[in-house]
Design goal:
Distance between the termini of chain B: 52 Å
Strand content of chain B: under 5%
Structural class of chain B: mainly alpha
Number of domains of chain B: 1
Number of helices of chain A: 11
Radius of gyration of chain B: 18 Å
Order of helices and strands of chain B: HHHHEEHHHHHHHH
Strand content of chain A: under 5%
Number of strands of chain A: 2
Oligomer: heterodimer
Strand order of the largest sheet of chain A: 1-2
Order of helices and strands of chain A: HHHHEEHHHHHHH
Shape of chain B: globular
Chain lengths: 287, 290
């Protein structure tokens, strides 16, 4: 029972971590919360599911296109809702992003209707025994894929020129510009990467819960934000750690405290973190 | 038909209180709250429970509502208002979700079925069962709230708040206790939202969690942005327009949220000062640095 809950928590937690990476990178470079991150996650899931439902697209291509659509949406969103408002009071872009989030959610509701869509293809996942403990291969696959994406992101940020340029912009935008870095392009790239990861997260959850619907991004988006704060906003390892911890806490809390309040656990943790250690576990840029 | 107009007028009055109160947080303290409907709900439930179980007269029930919402506002504001404005947005959003879950899961709040049979107010020998009597009660309350708000924002404290909004560090250097101001104004806004909740509960006489969800918080936010952040007259106008507009566009009901979301984005991009916030002051505060 405990072990099972732990695995459940790690699975959802790894998905929260993927979304939290988007929040944390965008916060790192612009100092803003992208409120519509949950809708980008929803967009990735919808594009993949709709493509697969046509029956003509192979699974990996559908995933790639879903992530691509999410990335594109992220870049467009930055252009429309954030860039014109740079230099304004910080609450202006914040409210604009809230507007974008509501807009995308209700647009999806109009286009696709409120009902859950099952994932169009079936996988042959089973439960296997590892060291005497039952493990679902679906959960293992999601966990492995999420960790793989995180590994790729870390390698990109640490070892490539573009990755280093993003870090430079996050550290000091003006100095980065003086060093010849095209800051606007790096901001777009950050949105592209963060949104692609959120899109991948959306597809994973669409498979895991076998449901895709317009409001699916709301709670995971909020929880992922709590995860980013928990780990230390602006820190990439922090977002991963925060996501996994939050997933486990939520799963154990639902099992041992009360399942009716499952969705409240993340916010209770968020408020506690802000109260006791606002900079997060790994010191982020939040103050 | 007249009954319907009266109904809209009463709702508009309740929304004016909500919009003016959240404008104190957004337009004067420069913070964003996305959980304002939660305080509205706390007020409504507190007031309804007091009249249903303890037969409190309306003024006492309304005071309890204001107290309950204010205490929750204080408890939420104390830890979060020390931080940057975007944290408050998320925390209040999370708070809204928690409060919604509490209303849904507790036995005393009636769960998803809500609380029926809330008595309409009657006090001082007056009975507010008739809609137009209730409208008078709402109008008097709105006027009192508006007078209090104008007095506040034109006072020393109002200037201190605007200083915090425009430049927090400078305000601090001038000797303004910025965290205390933010907490007080946040609590005050929660108190007013609680009052609006009480007015709503005793008017509709039935409440359930649906009324106090995220979409209501977003609606109130849109009203403020439409009217102009930092403009009280704008808040009144925004509340009235967005109470009446959806009724006129009944066929477009499905598009309501789409319109609100699009409106928020477009307004901020093309007219960040809102309809009435054209004054020098509001624009200056929005276009702070660059």
């Amino acid at each position: 029972m405990f072990f099972q809950q732990l695995i459940n928590g790690l699975t959802t937690g790894s998905v929260y971590a993927l979304i939290a990476l988007g929040y944390t990178m965008i916060y790192g470079i612009l100092g803003l919360i992208n409120f519509a991150q949950g809708e980008i996650y929803m967009c990735g899931a919808f594009v993949a599911v709709l493509l697969l439902a046509t029956g003509k697209v192979n699974f990996f291509l559908a995933v790639a296109l879903g992530m691509g659509a999410a990335a594109l949406l992220g870049v467009i969103l930055e252009r429309v809702a954030f860039r014109p408002l740079r230099g304004f009071h910080p609450l202006v872009p914040l409210i604009s992003a809230i507007g974008a989030s509501i807009f995308l959610q209700s647009l999806a509701l109009l286009l696709f209707g409120p009902n859950d869509r099952p994932f169009p293809i079936q996988f042959a996942f089973t439960t296997i025994m590892i060291a005497g403990l039952p493990v679902s291969t679906l959960q293992m696959t999601i966990l492995a894929a999420a960790l793989g994406f995180m590994g790729l992101l870390i390698v990109f940020v640490r070892y490539t020129t573009y990755g280093k340029a993003i870090v430079a912009c996050a550290l000091d935008r003006d100095t980065a510009r003086l060093m010849g870095i095209n800051v606007d392009r790096m901001v777009s790239l950050t949105f592209l990467l963060g949104s692609a990861l959120s899109g991948a997260a959306g597809i994973m959850m669409a498979i895991y819960y076998n449901a895709t619907y317009p409001r699916m991004g709301l709670l995971p988006g909020l929880k992922a934000f709590s995860a980013a704060i928990l780990g230390g906003v602006g820190s990439i390892p922090g977002a991963i750690l925060g996501g996994l911890l939050l997933g486990v806490a939520e799963s154990l809390g639902a099992a041992y405290i009360s399942s009716g309040f499952k969705d409240a656990i993340a916010f209770a943790i968020l408020i506690l973190v802000l109260l006791l250690r606002p900079q997060g576990i790994l010191r982020g840029r939040g103050d | 038909m007249t009954a319907y107009v009266l109904h809209l007028a009463i709702l508009a009055g309740i929304y004016i209180i909500l919009t003016v109160s959240i404008n104190l947080i957004i337009g004067y303290a420069g913070q964003v709250s996305l959980g304002h409907a939660a305080f509205y709900g706390i007020g409504a439930y507190a007031s309804a429970l007091m009249s249903l179980h303890y037969h409190f007269p309306f003024p006492a029930a309304a005071l309890t509502a204001m107290l309950a919402a204010g205490l929750c506002g204080l408890a939420l504001g104390l830890p979060t208002l020390r931080l940057k404005e975007d944290y408050l947005a998320i925390v209040t959003l999370g708070f809204g979700v928690i409060v919604d879950l509490v209303f849904l899961n507790l036995e005393i709040t009636g769960g998803p079925d809500g609380l029926p049979g809330i008595p309409p107010p009657s006090f001082l020998g007056l009975n507010f069962r008739e809609p137009w009597h209730y409208l008078i009660l709402v109008i008097v309350t709105v006027i009192l709230v508006l007078i209090a708000t104008y007095r506040l924002v034109d006072s020393y404290h109002g200037r201190a708040l605007r200083a915090i909004r425009d430049h927090e560090i400078t305000a601090q250097v001038m000797g303004i206790n910025t965290p205390a101001y933010k907490v007080v104004v946040f609590t005050l806004a929660a108190v007013l939202a609680g009052l609006a909740g009480s007015l709503y509960a005793h008017y509709i006489t039935f409440i359930n969690p649906e009324t106090f969800g995220l979409h209501t918080s977003i609606l109130i936010l849109t009203m403020v942005v439409l009217g102009g952040m930092g403009s009280i007259a704008g808040s009144v106008l925004g509340a009235v327009i967005l109470t009446i507009l959806p009724e006129m566009l009944r066929q477009a009901h499905a598009y309501q949220e789409l319109i609100y979301g699009g409106l928020l984005m477009l307004l901020l991009i093309w007219r960040p000062a809102g309809l009435l916030g054209r004054g020098k002051l509001s624009l200056k505060f929005l276009k702070r640095e660059s």
